[in-house]
Specification:
single chain, 299 residues, mainly alpha, Serine Threonine Protein Phosphatase 5, Tetratricopeptide repeat, two-stranded antiparallel sheet, 2 strands, globular, disordered C terminus
Amino acid sequence: MSSKVDDEHVTSCTDELNNVHITRTEVVDICANCGKDGGNGLKACTACKLVKYCNRDCQIAHRSKHKKACRKRAAEIRDEELFKQPPPKVDCPICLLPLPLLISASISLIIERKSPFCRAPAPYSIEEFNERLQKRVEVGDAWAINMLGCNYREGEDGFPQDYDKALELYVRAGGLGCAEAYCDVGYAYENGRGVEIDEKKSNHYYKLAAVGGNIEARYNLGLDEMKDGNMDRALKHYMIAAEDGDDISLKKIQELYTNGLATKDDYAKALRAYQAYLVEIKSTQRDKAAAASAKYCYY
């Protein structure tokens, strides 16, 4: 079965991942190829930000000399973004349950006190639920788009199973800020769910999801690094996930420590961070809200 996600989207997402929150390195305003003083008219190399050029011709002419340093710095920039602790999760001010990260459409509705999660009564049927879901999809709600993708992937709640449609919706939701959707794309490529198995694409989408704060994708990246023998990088992923409340990643760090692949201080730091997370999210009101949410299907 063919996929509607092509290499152009992977390239654009790579650019997105490379250029978020990058601090430009201080560079002199001369062309790295011809030495011309171009003032503010020079353009920095988009990959590494280390050098500037008069124009594309100068950049092409200098490529062979610059390539090694450029790749090294570009990789450092990607790692700086990848291994940064994601922003804290936001709670709904009405029901106190955590909101999905970076879903601006849903959050704006919460701020306007028109929460689609809290203010509407539970739907009486799947048909009513799907009608509400479609309305949220039509206004660009990333969470709803991702959920619709899950329905198509599994063929549930009255939707036919359609992997191509699911993948299309996941990519759309990911572009709107739903990290979970990018994780689902990574899972599809890792396991061949409707697409050919592609480890490179799977890893790429897991990275996008991890940067967005998805701990499942972060854990999967840790597994990939362990498989490749990169224990230091695996440990970094597990540490970030444990600090964000992932007990499975904490157990992985314990496993690394037991096998002599992580230090006692590493495990102690992870344990403290995980316990601090549990203390931070603990509240009677939150527990009651979570219990109520488990009984009813709200949207």
